[in-house]
Amino acid sequence: RLLAHAGTVGEVAQRMGVTPGRVRQMLRARELFAVREGETWRVPWFQFDGDRPVRGLDRIIRVLPSDLHPVAVFNLLTLPDPDLELHDRPVSPLEWLRSGADPTPIVELAADL
Predict the structure, then answer these.
(1) Residue 4: is its pLDDT beyond 90?
(2) What does R_g of the chain's alpha carbons equal in angstroms?
(3) Is the pTM value of this prediction over 0.90?
(4) pLDDT at site 112
């Protein structure tokens, strides 16, 4: 299901208005999360706001263990975390970032995985 909602390097490049080479550069720098499917990379759309990656997400992606299962990455970023609260309710790391909050607490959590 995660891969069903993911784009190829070319699709991501088109969405972002950049070249496929720039997307591959972002993947190598771990600025985007991607899953290898055979010979191609699949970039899940959950990490985008419109045509751009969620602000601050690159800081989290960089510190995640490279062998972390893709479903674990998805769950980490999309499920509410009791340590992240907005308006007195727990929110997911992605919701936290989309609100404009500081990514540092999530970076620290991801670095400890």
Answers:
(1) no
(2) 14
(3) no
(4) 86
| Residues 6 or more apart whose Cβ sits within 8 Å of residue 109 | 76, 81, 83, 93
* d(C-alpha 82, C-alpha 105), whole Å: 12
Q: In whole angstroms, give the CA distance from residue 37 to residue 42.
A: 7
Residues 15, 16, 19, 24, CA torsion sign: negative
User: Taking Cα atoms as reference points, which of 79, 71, 80 lies closest to residue 44?
Assistant: 71
pLDDT in the model for residue 1: 82
Chain centre distance of CA 113: 16
Beta strands in the chain (DSSP E): 6-7, 35-37, 40-44, 48-49, 52-53, 81-86, 89-91
CA dist 93 and 58 (Å) reads: 12
Q: How many residues does the chain have?
A: 113
What are phi and psi for residue 42, nearest 5 degrees?
-120, 125
- The model's pLDDT over 14-49, given as tens digits with 9 standing for 90+, comes to 999 999 999 999 999 999 999 998 999 999 999 999
